[in-house]
UniProtKB/TrEMBL annotation:
Gene3D superfamilies in UniProt: 3.30.300.30, N-terminal domain of ligase-like
Molecular function GO labels: acetate-CoA ligase activity; ATP binding
One cellular component (GO) term of this entry: cytosol
The organism of origin for this protein: Candidatus Chisholmbacteria bacterium RIFCSPLOWO2_01_FULL_49_14
Name this protein carries in UniProt: acetate--CoA ligase
Annotated EC: 6.2.1.1
Taxonomy of the source species: Bacteria, Candidatus Chisholmiibacteriota
Amino acid sequence: MKVQIYKKTKDYFKKPPNLVDYEKTNRTFSWKDAQQEIEYVDGKLNAAYNAIDRNAVNFRKNKIALYWEGDEEKKLRFTFSDLAKLSSRFANLLHNFDVGIGDRVFFFLPRVPELYYGFLGAVKRGSIAGTMFSAFGPQAIEDRLGNSSAKLVVTNSELLPRVLKVLKNLPELTNILLVDSKLDRKEGHAHVLSLENELSKQSDQYEARLMDPEDPAFMLYTSGTTGKPKGVIHAHRSILHEHMSAKWVLDLREEDVYWCTADPGWVTGIAYEILGSWSNGASSVVYSGRFDPDIWYRIIQDYGVNVWYTAPTAIRMLAAAKGNPKEKYDFSSLRHLASVGEPLNPEPIRWGIKTFGLPFHDNWWQTETGGILIANYPALDIKLGSMGKPLPGITAGIVDDSGKELGPNQEGNLAIKPGWPSMMKTIWRRPNKYKSYFLKGWYISGDRAFTDKDGYFWFIGRADDVIKTGGERVGPFEVESALVEHPSIIEAGVIGKPDPLRGEIIKAFVTLKPGIKPTEKLKEEIQSFIKHHLAGHAYPREIEFKDNLPKTRSGKIMRRMLKAQELGLPIGDTSTLEKF
Ligand code: ATP
Ligand code: MG
């Protein structure tokens, strides 16, 4: 397919970006030099101290750190000093509840302020903070709280019954704190207490515990797109990576209002809504209400959002909504747009340019990598559909299945040289799983990709999703990207379907724009459209129309589920599946 380039001219930049010269920085950068951006004391540090407390004692003390908005336009504001005090209360609470260093504390909450300062308080204390997405059901909760042996959980009255349902299988869980109740009671072996009451008894002063850079700070379960979610442990050292990548990739500046739409149930909401963004001193917007294009646009306009970090599914949903938002809303505050979580097809980037006058900058990383590793930077031109280039300080490569590095334009495993600061410390209670990520001095991501001659990285698909048809390998991403170029299609998921003749054939599941009729004629038209866009062998021999595609709750298309359904196979772990 022909590559389209978005060139950045001089007028693109009102001010130079934080990372002015990518190539030069990439040549000269060292993580050791960058350590001066973070406060270490005798080689020790605390990730949450660097995100919040140090900004509560410097010139940012009274700056708004969090603009919070819930349903029905309920609004709250917190300064850095407010968050430092509230998180200190929570750290003192943990101390008084005998939750110690390395003990697991989980937050099972929607995006309420308590989640943000509670998480910071747990990290300040040196406990291991974890999150669970608020839509999880009892089994998903039992899996995560059981695997992590959490001692304390913070949740709300609406979610509590799901925890109680599995409480008997969680003997270590002895305290459950509710953000919205004043009544204390006992349920089985656990105390159910009011968070507000307990916090009011604590001092708002707490000196963040200095930790070894290797000590665990937080844990997160992966999205479960490919199988059972893994409990990934991250160390305090990760803050250095999150800080530098937020500065360079999200281009956060002192005067910025920043909006990350991710939920802290997933890694993006931790690394770039709590840690790296606040360590850079950004004022962040958190919107906890339901998805509605009009509300999202109003938030950008009313808060004067400058930097917006979102995900392909959200962009496609906005693009599919009726009307032209440009006519109704003022987007002039926006300066930089970024996207993560799934491959970003060229079509939504073009829609972004039309609607906001700016391209979305795709970047790639994983729960395991703890921070952005490959990105499109404000200072570089964008090749539409490419993930961009490695972050300075990161050595990324494409290697074959024996660990041998491959040259440009060769498909292989996307791999990274280990040792970057936010690399996972381990997989909780699965040391062999952790070891299995490494091969001949490389971290193997599980994704397939290639590089071009200019050093840009291109995503092909997850290793398990690559299709072998008629002796050729086809990445689902390129077929899906071509499909969503078709004017009738919103979203597409592509799988390989076993075929006696060709090994596999390509089968596409597509959702249509509102009002479009799903006819046989349309299928043929789509097929010939793809033949024109891609090589002949890469067109889907089968197309099925669907109202929705199965997705994880973090918005990723679950191709393994499409495949299992197609072949009548067991569908495996569905704890992260969105209602479907
Ligand atoms: P599991 O490991 O449990 O199957 P998961 O891999 O979806 O779940 P995450 O760590 O949340 O869990 O997601 C990381 C994966 O998301 C990457 O390995 C990649 O497949 C995909 N991804 C993230 N960002 C991008 C991107 N910019 N382009 C393409 N793929 C991306
Ligand atoms: Mg994964």
